[in-house]
Amino acid sequence: MIEVYTDGAAKGDPGQSGAGIYIKDGTAQKMFSIPLGIHTNHEAEFLAVIEALKICRQQFPGEILSFRSDSKLVVDVIEKDFTKNKTFLPFLEEIKKSSSEFPYFFIKWIPEKQNKHADKLARQALREKEEEFDTD
Which pLDDT tens digit goes with each residue over 31-47? Predict the structure, then answer.
């Protein structure tokens, strides 16, 4: 089973955003810091899950995935497979489609303090984007 921790961050609402993805595969660890462009914090949280699923599709096809997020909104929408928010609907559809490629996909909410690796990576993605602008 692959453990996947995701977090999204935005500087402004909306503003520059980033995704942090921390993956545990047994004793191996993989870390990803992905700039996402201009999004709200909630959108960044959804996009972090989507980006993590893309990585898992490439690196862990056919594995059981256990995702963890400190976003209650994202976890609730995915678990209930429902949202009234038209902005979040395309994200939910993409997550359903991508996660269906795996035999089992679980997601659970965790407190922020248990998601420090992914949070740090999401903030790193914001800094990388800022540095990119500083060099232009």
Answer: 999 999 999 999 999 99
**Span 49-76, pLDDT tens digits:** 999 999 999 999 999 999 999 999 999 9
Answer for the pair 104, 65: CB distance below 8 angstroms, yes or no: yes
Q: Assess whether pLDDT exceeds 80 at residue 136.
A: no
> Is the peptide bond prior to 103 cis by the omega test (within 30 degrees of 0)?
no
Task: Please name the residues in contact with 103: beta carbons below 8 A apart, sequence gap of 6 or more.
Answer: 62, 63, 64
User: pTM for this one?
Assistant: 0.94
SS3 string of the chain? Answer: CEEEEEEEEEEECCEEEEEEEEEEECCEEEEEEEEEEEECHHHHHHHHHHHHHHHHHHHCCCCCEEEEECCHHHHHHHHHCCCCCCCCHHHHHHHHHHHCCCCCEEEEECCHHHCHHHHHHHHHHHHHHHHHHHCC
